[in-house]
Design goal:
Layout (H helix, E strand, L loop, with lengths): L1 H13 L8 E4 L24 H12 L26 E6 L5 H13 L4 E6 L6 H4 L4 H31 L7
Length: 174
């Protein structure tokens, strides 16, 4: 879902639609190209989201093998050249996550484009650990960080909205 959320933000930005205040991207699948490399199929010791499974997911989603030169627009968020103008982003990854490199790269590219981006790396964590090991300390810390970041961004936005509401002066039209 994180990759789809990133793609939705890109499309909304391009179409001048209402942008979300923030991107909350838990272990997003952002780039199809690394998955095309079959050397990544071994070792198969990743408990969640190994390269073969991920290649199947990209193939099913794209309707073609991953790594091809042309993909549907907005389908692969990491392929976007210009990331400027997107909402602030919070991203998470485990350091043994198959998507670790692409998530770190995307966070770096967001920052380089002037987009505030916070990257949380959970040591020893595989893909989607927050869904099935949410009761261990490192995951609790990561989730607390995610909630605090989202709360800060939501409160910041709410303050701006309330300021505009407070400044509004109704007019009587005759």
């Amino acid at each position: 879902g994180g990759g789809l959320a990133a793609a939705a933000c890109q499309r909304l930005y391009d179409e001048h639609g209402p942008l979300p205040r923030a991107q909350w991207l838990f272990c997003p699948m952002l780039d199809d190209r690394p998955t095309a490399d079959r050397r990544r199929d071994v070792p198969r010791d990743r408990p969640v989201a190994n390269n073969e499974q991920t290649r199947f997911a990209w193939t099913s989603y794209l309707g073609q093998a991953p790594g091809k030169e042309h993909v549907p627009e907005y389908a692969v968020p990491a392929r976007r050249v210009d990331l400027s103008g997107l909402p602030p982003a919070w991203l998470s990854t485990g350091d043994i996550e198959l998507f670790y490199e692409e998530i770190c790269s995307y966070a770096r590219r967001l920052r380089e484009a002037g987009v505030p981006a916070q990257l949380e790396i959970v040591e020893g964590a595989p893909h989607a650990i927050e869904l099935w090991a949410f009761d261990i300390d490192v995951v609790k810390q990561m989730l607390a960080s995610a909630r605090a970041w989202l709360g800060h961004n939501a409160i910041h936005d709410l303050a701006g909205v309330l300021g505009r509401v407070a400044a509004y002066e109704p007019r009587t039209v005759t």
